[in-house]
Amino acid sequence: MRFALSEDQLLFRDTVRALLNDRAGPEVARAAWESDTGAVGDVWDRLAEMGVVAMLAPESGGGMGMTEVDLLAIQIEAGAAALTEPLIEHVAVGVPALVESGAAGEGWVAPAVAGEVRVSVALRPDTFHPHGGSAELFLAQRGTGDESELVAVTRDDADLVAQESVEEARRLVRVGLADGVGTVLGGREMVSAARDRGALAAAAQLVGVTRTLIETTTEYAKEREQFGKPIGVNQAVKHQLADARVALEFAEPLALRAAASLSAGDPDRSAHVAMAKAQASDAADLAARTALQVHGAIGYTFEHDLHLWLKRAWSLSASWGSAA
Fold this sequence. Notes:
By secondary structure, the chain is an alpha+beta fold. It is built from ten helices and eight strands. The chain has helices at 7-23, 26-34, 43-50, 68-80, 87-100, 106-113, 188-223, 235-264, 269-295, 306-318, and strands at residues 119-122, 137-142, 149-154, 159-163, 172-176, 183-186, 225-226, 229-230. The strands form three sheets. Strands 1-2-3-6 form a four-stranded mixed sheet.
């Protein structure tokens, strides 16, 4: 097994990074907080044009025919840029589930692959759906254990109740799923596959969030002076940043391994995904606490961009299974 990204995968990643640097970032994230739906700008349309939205759909269905390994680096860049679009829910989970559901989800596959509709996903009954302000199709779990099933319900048919969110760019809604409402896409195995894909994508985005937190905090420590010298020369600051970096270096390979396991159908893929999600959540938590401490009082202000990545770290750490 080649345990590294190929040149083509890295080139695609760099292309997406350039797009996100131009079309995403703090200004767009702030605008998303203030918009009615949480969706702003044209970055989603541009990602669809580049084929990102359709990466995990087969070529026969208008997709790119790529794998979770290909998508991993894109999710990392999305986390690093604090992207406010549903790359986890729609791209990593929603599109593959609709494709695998066969005739049940056939009518939604083409518009989802084209990015014409946004898909939100939440598993376990009573879990809140993110991106509820912009999603047109909601995938939810009904029932538990062997009786669980993945159900699709349109915005018009769903009973949506807005919920308060730590991160307003990912608007949360509770989706009411009474018996008989929605279309059943699959049973327990589909729910399990969706959970693995979502947890892996969340882990990858957490890797990106952690990277940005470390880089931003390191630059701040070089510039912020106390007693006539940068605070970054203090060993206590260096050690905290080094610990966060070590946590990141452990998390990223686990995410790559989990992606390879998912794409290859490894029977231990769920364990590999859980390992990656736990490590990535812990790394992001450590990086967030370090960033907040090094930035000091300014890090607590809404005016500083730091909170955009802090809140993304907290929300993703708690999503798709916490580290615990």
